[in-house]
TrEMBL record:
Cellular compartments annotated: Cytoplasm
Organism: Capsulimonas corticalis
GO molecular function, a single term: RNA binding
Keyword rRNA-binding belongs to the record: no
The protein, known as: Ribonuclease HII
Enzyme Commission identifier(s): 3.1.26.4
Gene: rnhB
Cofactor: Mg(2+); Mn(2+)
GO cellular component: cytoplasm; ribonuclease H2 complex
Amino acid sequence: MAAREAGHAIIAGVDEVGRGPLAGPVVAACVVLPETFSTDGINDSKKLTEKRREKAYDRILAEALAVGVGIVPREMIDQINILHATHLAMSKAVRNLPQEWAPDIVLIDGLPVHGIPCAHQKAIVGGDGLSVSIAAASILAKVTRDRMMAAYDKKYPEYGFAKHKGYGSAVHMAALREHGACPIHRRSFAPVAAAPRSNRYGDQS
């Protein structure tokens, strides 16, 4: 690993999920793995089945040296925009690591992130397929957010959040047109802004 060869002892991987959906939070995770961590079953979360993600999630939590999660709700997304909300979630994830595991370097999927609380960061395009710590972070973030959306599905059953996780599927768009926006819909996203304002949950503007 290039970061370890460069002299960095505590290396953290960071990734996020939930940038594209029309509803729900954006979630990021930060993971510090032991050098002996096996890559078996670990990959970009989007390339794993739900069953394999859940299995990998449990193993990462059991074997990781440290884990931090950052969650930014839809209200903040609407206030500061999705890009800034994503960066905030990633910064929160790093800050939420135990203090004794503050990283020497943070490996980030994609482009550099402003505000990461670490002296060194390395942005890796396609990092969730190249770095095991970033892949582990992507799995933790994905499973965490999916479970949140499944819980929201019970609270707002009209929309089918457990299936599409808030993304703009045909089923979701039809429900949005029929029922209007519920409290977790992102008002700053165009399809939501165009939806009816009044529904059984009241005007949630």
